[in-house]
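ingest -> fold -> write
write: protein_1
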Amino acid sequence: MTAPSVSIIIPTLNEAGHLGRTLNQLEILDPAADEVIVVDGGSTDATLARAHVHGCRVIRCQPVGRAVQMNRGAAEARGEILCFVHADTLVPSDLVQLVTATLADPATSCGGFISLMRGTWSTRWGVSLHNALKTHYAALLFRPHRYVLKGFRVLFGDQVMFCRRRDFERCGGFDDTLPIMEDADLCERLGRLGRIRQLNRVVESSDRRVARCGSWKATGIYLMIGLLWGLGVPAARLKRFYGEIRD
C-alpha cells in the first residue's frame, strides 16, 4: 500500500532567527514530507524570505494567532496526515516514517514527541524533564479514567503534534478563540477518537523562553498554567502569564 501523504505546517511570526535551521532539518527528512507550509501572521523581519529560499508554500494569514494560523494551514494542506512544527524546533530525520508508522494503528488518533529544550550553551534538562512528565501528569490528574483506560495524554505544541486530517476535521481543529493551550484543548477532543501517544524520541526546541525567565520561574509558569487549565480557568486569563518571546 502507498504510504499516506504528510503535510508539515509551521505557524510563524517574526521567526527569522530560528526558521532557517528548522527548514534545513526538514529538507533532509528521509523519506521527505509531501509538503512544508509556512503560515505567517504578518512578520516584519526576514521570516518570509527564509521560507521562500527553502521553497516552502507560504500562506499569509490574518487575523494572527497560532491556532488560527495552524487551522489555515490545515485547510490548505494536501496531506492525509497533518504535522504541526514550531518554527524553532528541530525534528528527527525519520520524522515522516515515525508519524506514518504511529498512525498506522487505527486506535491512535494523535501523537507527539519528547521535547528537549536547548540553547547555545546549555541543555535545559530539568525543564525538559518536567515538560515530558507533564504530558502524563496533566492527563492523570484531570482525566484519570481516560488516562488509564483509553491512553489519554496531553501534548503541547513544542512536542510536534501530528494526526490524521480526517480526525482533525472531525473534532473541529484548533479552537481559534484560544490565545494559549490550543494544543491541550485539541488533545482533549482528539482523545475521544483514540489513543494519544508520546513517542520515545526527541525533538529539540529553543530555550529562549527559559533563558529569559530562568529555569525555576519558567517551570513554575508551565506548572501553574497546566494546573489552572485543568481546573477550568479560561485560556484568556492564562495568557497573561505566558507573554510572546521573539529574538
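write: protein_2
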Amino acid sequence: MSKTILIVDDSASLRQVVGIALKGAGYEVIEGVDGRDGLTKLDGRKIHLIISDVNMPNMNGIDFVKAVKQNPTYRFTPIIMLTTEAGEDKKNEGQAAGVRAWVVKPFQPNQMLNAVSKLILP
C-alpha cells in the first residue's frame, strides 16, 4: 500500500513538479492550494507526510502547521517546509510550530525525496 503525502502550495507549477517527483517514487499525492484548503484535506484519511509552502494567501504555512498540530489525528504527521524563505527567523518560527525539515527552493527533487523518506510515517 502506498503512502499519502499532502502538498500545500499556492503555485500550481510547484505542486506539479513536487507531485511528479513523489508519484515517481511511489507515493500517493493530495494537493491543497493554500493553508485553509490544505486543512480541508485533513478529513480523517491517513496522511503520512505534509509538504507545505510558507508564503501563501488566505492562510500561510506557519499558521497552517499550527492548525495541523491542533488536530489530534494529524498532530504527529511530519511536516516539511518547501519555501524560498531561508531566514533563520522563519526557520525558528517553523520549528517552534512543529516543522521537521526545511527545504529551500529552488530544490533538487532528490534532496526533497531524501527528506521525505527520512521523515515519512511508517
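write: annotation protein_2
The chain has one domain: 4-119.
The CA atoms of residues 68 and 74 lie 6 Å apart.
pipeline exit 0
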